[in-house]
Amino acid sequence: QVQLVESGGGLVQAGGSLRLSCAASGRTFSKYSMGWFRQAPGKEREFVAAISWTGGTTDYTDSVKGRFTISRDNAKDTVYLQMNSLKPEDTAVYSCAAGQYPYIRIDGFGSWGQGTQVTVSS
Fold first, then answer.
1. Helix or strand or coil: residue 14?
2. Under DSSP, is residue 72 helix (H, G, I), strand (E, B) or coil?
3. How many CB atoms lie within 10 A of CB 19?
């Protein structure tokens, strides 16, 4: 059973930046894809970004392309989400997710962390 612990959330003004981290344990991190999802109040959880097992392939939802960057450090069993040019509509609880495959499948995430709150003020 994989365990995921996120950190790095907080309150930031519009236009600012945050870097989220997710430390994984409980399985061989480097063999699987990883992802980030978010859930805003009153809304369903949505996909944000994903990265393949080697980091060679990434995918983003359209609303964050050019502003967010997902990366991973397989030596540290950690995945990151660098968020720049933040907007109030990015406000949500951000959770990392463990993929069930080496490659990216948006429907292939089976475990999520508890999440970290990101609040962007206008």
1. coil
2. strand
3. 14
